[in-house]
Each structure stands twice: as structure tokens, then as C-alpha cells.
Automatic annotation (TrEMBL):
Enzyme class: hydrolase
EC nos: 3.2.2.-
Family named by the database record: Belongs to the DNA glycosylase MPG family.
Organism: Lactobacillus kimbladii
One Gene Ontology molecular-function label: alkylbase DNA N-glycosylase activity
Entry keyword set: DNA damage, DNA repair, Hydrolase
Full protein name: Putative 3-methyladenine DNA glycosylase
Top-rank taxon, per record: Bacteria
Gene (UniProt): mag
Family matches, as SUPFAM superfamilies: FMT C-terminal domain-like (SSF50486)
Pfam families per the UniProt record, alphabetical: Pur_DNA_glyco
Listed PANTHER family: DNA-3-METHYLADENINE GLYCOSYLASE (PTHR10429:SF0)
Amino acid sequence: MNYSTYFSNKSTAAITKDLIGRPLTYNDGQNIMGGYIVEAEAYLGVKDRAAHSYGGHRSPANEGLYRKGGTIYIYAQRQYFFFDVATQEYNEPQGVLIRAIEPVWGIEQMIKNRADKNGVLLTNGPAKMMQAFGIHDKKWNLHFLSDSPFKIDLDDNHKKWAKEIKTSARIGVSQSELEWANKELRYYVAGNPYVSRMKKSAYQTDNGWQ
């Protein structure tokens, strides 16, 4: 299945859940770095008060959400950068935020990129993941996945399967918007230590994989 089909043939929530366990890699020209997606959040477009496109807001900063499914949307908050992929058809501005990966490939380089932070701190959050990849700008914003150094492996034979995928409210959504703040649109591998805010007492020895 190609990216255009994958990122537009079902609901954004279903896409987000299905991404759990899929390999995400980034090639900086010298190193391939990445791991298995263990946490992601769905953002449901113009009706979603937590989405950057809520109410139809559109600007150069969030244009990536309005492109066809499979387009990269990188945004910045303060000095931090975040990696999203647009879902649905052109002008239907929904997307998925990749929040965390369990690192597998290029770990040594990722540790260097993270100023020697390692263990779960290496990639257990969306800004940390981008730092681990050595990304400090929006260069690849608006690029289609297949025309970028990012790759999400859609082959089910290469996917890791979670014993349990849990859902929760998304992280950092304003509680002044209770309806959307409480919607369970965050998906994660139960017991995986690389999931952001995972309590140590919940860690599983197999990281939550089958």
C-alpha cells in the first residue's frame, strides 16, 4: 500500500492506532536512525478544538495539514520541533502526531544528537524524537513522505504487534475545552518504557510487545 492510500482510506483515529508498532526511520545522509512507533495522537481537523486547523484556520504555518494524506507537517513550539503526517484528502486538515518511538536503528548517533542522553530519555517524547534525529528546523515540512528522508514502513511483516494498545486523552490539550481535552485520541503501547509519561511501575519486561 502506498502512502497516499494508507493515509486517506480510513479515519484519522484508525490510522493513528494502526501506526503503533510500525518502523519510522530518518536518513540524515550518513545515518539511518529510528525505531518502532509506540505513541501517537490523532487530530481531527476543523471540528477539533485541539487541532491547529480548528475552525478552518489556515496559514503558511499549518499548510501541511491541508495537503493530501501522507504529507509531512512539521511545526515548532519555542525551540522544539514536532513531526506530524497529514491524513485524509486534500483540504481536509486532519493529522497524526508521532509522539514517541522505541529506538532500534542508529542509536549511537541519536545519543550524540541528544547530547549523550540515553535510555528512555532518548526518544520518549515528540521533541526528543526530533532532537534524536538531529532535526532543528522545518526543512521537510510540506514534503510528501516518499519524497523525504523519512520512511514509515507499511509492511505488516515488519510491524511489531503490541499486546495492548491503550488510549487516553491527548497530552497538553487545554482543559478549558473539556470535550476535546478528554477525547481519547492518544494511542500507545501499554507498558512500553519509551511512551512519554509512562510510570516505571507500569514498565513491562517485553516492552509490551507480543
